[in-house]
Amino acid sequence: MRRFLLLLALACAASEWLAGASLRVPDRVQAGQELSIPTSGSGEATLYLFGPSHAAKRTVKLGTPVTLAGDELLSAGRYVVVLNGESSTFFVTAGPVSTVAFIARPSRVPASTKDVVSGTVFLFDRNQNLVLSPQPVSFSLAVPGAPDVQHQQTSKDGVAWARLDSSRRAGAAQFVASSGAASVRRVVQEVAGEPCNIRMHAERAKGGAIALQTDPIRDCAGNPVPDGTIVTFTSVDESGRSTVDARIKRGFAQAELPASRRATVSVASGIVSGNEIRWGGGQ
Amino acid sequence: MRARIQVRHLLFGLLAALLAAPLLLSAAETGFAVILDTSQSQPRQVEETTMASVERDYGHAWHAMAAAIEENKIGLLGSDFVGLAREQLSQAIAEQGKSGLKRRYIDHGHQVRVVFYSSDGSAMELHDTVRLEIQLLDGDKVVHREQGTFHFLALMTPAENSWKVRLLESVSGF
User: What is the ipTM of this complex?
Assistant: First the structure.
């Protein structure tokens, strides 16, 4: 019995010694942090380290801790360390958010439109590792003179996205995405949408031509429709149809149509039609 | 009579080899097997043509990476990797070369889920569950060998006519 107990104690001691010989590394280490690995035994051995952007082989002294420097562990991912026939794996994880990669689309949108602006962010630490742990991200879209459009989101696997409405007021909107201390700004040009209604008036020009001019053309939120937008004037009389495309200039569009004794004149821009004038027979 | 049968077998064998050759060639060209699941893609659904391209290009990228990291030739990465992914792999390959080390990936297929596809179609995030055998070598001596299921997170972005791997990170799970 005494002999059996002695053998059992020896076996326990041997197994503890063997366990001490295996590599003990933590499951996770933050990128850029130094890692110390205790070793047992004596003499020298070869250490191998394989990581996502690193591979190294060096001779180390057994019995003293082996240090993996922070700059050997900069890239997030799986690492394998091999020493004296033993191997262990661990993961390097990203540090705190340092950089926000922000994609804002599109760069030009109509004002007062739902879900028209989209923003996507990718969160990176200072070593360009994607921060996979959930992080609060805020999106804000602001045009001077109009209330900000805000959206809060929690990132998932390093990414967060949002769709925002454009403001009622046209102008250069500041689209900002931020997480922690990192923040990125983009400019989204919000322009007036389709004209809300178009009103024109007509008068006789020199030579009997019909001179047409619109009132100031605005979208339904009251923003002036941008200069350069095409407005089409059409007159239909007994000799046929005449059409003139004119660009909005300083908020108005104007054109001259050929002289006619009696005609129906209409105006339109895009899919929006304006008023109609019966020329010659009284308006 | 026996000689006639042998000739017939030989002809059948040649015919089979000729038919199989293009298939083997196309497997080598397209890379490792990838099965793509797009059912959880957000905020945009993946179009069928995009799905086929990503399957092809991601499998091809792994094929290129396995060759480059085993032969320590950065050039073998081709144009499948860009940005951070290319920098990291190039650095690892250069350091392996200096120390006489190699990595061998024996790929048994990828189950890939698209978890993010940006609304403008400019970025895609993949969760890849891959069955791999990994061998780490010092010269020709294997110093570490493991076989199992591994998880990789990938970011891909489209280029002119293909998708490129911009980030590839081994993670503990999803």
Answer: 0.84
